Amino acid sequence: MSNEAATEAGGGGLTAYIQHHLQHNVQQIAGYSFNIDSLIVGLVTGLGILLWFWSVARKASSGVPSKTQAFVELAIEFVDGQVKDSFHGDRRFIAPLALTIFLWVFVMNAMDLLPLDLFGGIVNLVAGPEAASHFYFRAVPTADINTTFAMALVVFGLIIYYSIKVKGGFGFVAELFTAPFHAHGVLGKVLLAVPNFFLNVVEYLAKPVSLGMRLFGNMYAGELVFMLIAGLMAATTLSFIPAVLLNAGWAIFHILIIGLQAFIFMVLTVVYISMAHEKH
């Protein structure tokens, strides 16, 4: 823990410490507010994954693979198997999409394992405690609801795109008013048009909301626990060994959440796109 964090937790209390670390680095650009920390970490992790895969692909061999190549091939086979179980159409786009989502979300989630005061400590060493006390940087993009909802909206756009592509524009609109309840005769179809439309709109809107909120809620809660542990360490001068054991215990458990949430986001994306290919 950095010196300014300890001072803040000890002087301002645990609540002040947590409130400080819940602040995003917000910048105004063209009249709009942007969480720069989420954008930077999201971009760096995404480009890092692309560069890593590119370097592995360049060095790939048909003989005995290296450990890195074997790991990448294992990840690709795992994701492709999951896509094959959920999606029965052409997987040439869906499988790479699922792989990208899984690895990108996993790495962004894994930023939660970095020391909480890492960036604040660097600023403290370079610019001093005064600058560090006004420095805000949250390193977990998926604990930012703007990030998770942005990804969920992209998935929602793909759902609408494939729904129209598979069923046609007229077929997609007609399905909104004629399913899930079917009726014979013009009067029955007219009477069921409104409830059908309402249920379909709720179903479509629930998909991005559930995707975004599930990932955000789990990662936000995990990040909050790390803040609570770090704040207690500073505020109560917890001895080194108990503090390390407490942090290590939560970090080990949190690794399961990190991987599970990435897997769930990937699987739900594939399932939702698969549902867009089906007709009622």
Could you list some keywords that capture this structure?
disordered N terminus; 2 strands; 280 residues; mainly alpha; single chain; two-stranded antiparallel sheet; 9 helices
Helix content: over 70%
Question: What Rg do the Cα atoms give?
Answer: 23 Å
Number of helices: 9
Number of strands: 2
Overall number of structural domains: 1
The main β sheet shows up as: 2 strands, antiparallel
Query: Any idea what the shape is?
Result: globular
Task: Report, as a whole number of angstroms, the end-to-end distance.
Answer: 56 Å
- Overall pLDDT score: 88
Order of helices and strands: HEEHHHHHHHH
pLDDT under 50 segments (min length 5)?
1-11
Which band does the percent of strand residues land in?
under 5%
